[in-house]
Specification:
With 418 residues, the protein is mostly helical. Helices cover 69% and strands 1% of the residues.
Amino acid sequence: MWHSKLGKLYVIFVLLAAGFFLIDSCNSILRSDIKTVSVFILFALMAELFPVKLMNDAEVTVGFAVYLGSIIILGYKTSVLVALISSLLSQLEHKLYKDALIKKTLNVALYTIMVGGSGYIYEKLGGTPGVINLENLWPLIALIFSYFILNVGIMTLGLSIFLKKSPKYIFLTTFKGALPNYIALAPLGILLAVIYVNAGAIGLILFLIPLFIARHSFKLYMDMKKVYLETIQALASAIETKDPSTKGHSERVARLAVAMAEEMRLDPDLINALHYAALLHDIGKIGIPEPILNKPSKLSEEEYDKIKTHSELGANIVEKVDFLYLASLFIRYHHERLDGSGYPEGLKGKEIPLGAQIIAVADVFDALTTDRPYRNTLTVEEALKEIERDSGTKLKAEVVEALRKVVKGEKLGRYVAR
């Protein structure tokens, strides 16, 4: 991922920017108070060694509070040294290989830029190292927001290049959840500076308590989101125990639906709801008798009517969970068709939620490319032709086109049963 032209330009830009701040800080580093600098390096290292995982392999730490306090007390030039050494030491705990070395180097460079850039703005706006002036908050406000913008901006740009996603998508799916972390940590950074001015390095021991409470609270928040998804995946697995012929179906449909939605450049919040809905789109089959689900021959009209109730049953189950309400709408209507021939309500055209229409296409594609008791599998090309026959009549043409692009452009193993 580092080898594309744009990726190389990004790496060069980040390294050059970090190099500028290091060169700019050289003189100040030589005149620094080793004891004070060592204390801030230790605190920053402790903060960096306990990151909280976000999506897309991104991480967030409580180091922001320490660097904020360091800039206020030591000034941005000396704080660049704090950021450089603490981030370097925190990167040494993992094995090194080529891509990892580049990633670690970029992480160190990023900290150098964040601290150097935001600290430079702070001092240019009137902030004085070692002096805490709460009567003029503008330099502090600029410091906080510039640090956040540099951090999130550079990371978002990098992930956008390397993952080939839009910056908006990367921000909303990866860093939107980090905002509470910054809001909570900014006052702690100022508190750190106040403690140091009034009680010295020894007083900072007390600061460890609120610092790690903040880290623990944010970790609980992210863990809760992870538990949501794991619970949903467990429910999806429970569905498949009733119908072994659909093993892996829900996960494949979810991967494909999300990829199609990304291809269509839909809002990340909608994609998130779509992901949950796709994983749970067949949860209503829990209420369908197993002899009907596993019947190897053609279903009778009465049995088929029973099967058709699963979308409403599933929606009724899911809608009781607040954060799954939008997903429940997609589940309820994923068997509706543009011409009104679907179920449960015979909706037409724009009456059908877009998320439901995406799941419908992904669901049909997976069903066609998977062996079922009542039909042999089709090849990918055969399945696409079958779906394209219904494009614009039963299935939304824009969604079918997104399916074609995703299936043609990706490794089929991600979306086709093996």
